[in-house]
Design brief:
The protein is built from no helices and eleven strands. The protein is an all-beta fold and 116 residues long.
């Protein structure tokens, strides 16, 4: 059973920064492309960032380009999302996803609330 565990969410003011972590112990992490999604209240889940197995390719959704940074540490089976200059509209539950071939695994999500 693959388990992804997100952490690092919280409440912060607009313009603030936050770093999310996703731990993925117990499976062949290096085989999986990793993605971060978010889902705001009343909205569909959207892809925020993705990183390939070795980190050779990284993609970001247009709204976060230049402000978010995704990285991974295969030795620690972990992926991170550094979020800067956060906006109130980015309040959402952020999810970690592991993707390989037809397989997709999800974490339970971590709440990020941006509010003054």
């Amino acid at each position: 059973q693959v388990q992804l565990v997100e952490s690092g969410g919280g409440l912060l003011q607009p313009g603030g920064s936050l770093r999310l972590s996703c731990a993925a112990p117990g499976f062949t992490f290096v085989r999986y492309a990793m993605r971060w999604y978010r889902q705001a209240p009343g909205k569909e889940r959207e892809l925020v960032a993705s990183i390939t197995t070795t980190g050779g390719r990284i993609d970001y959704a247009d709204p976060v380009k230049g402000r978010f940074l995704v990285s991974r540490d295969n030795a620690k089976s972990a992926v991170y999302l550094q979020m800067n200059s956060l906006k109130p509209e980015e309040t959402a539950v952020y999810y970690c996803n592991a993707h390989y071939d037809w397989l997709d695994y999800w974490g339970q999500g971590t709440q990020v609330t941006v509010s003054s």
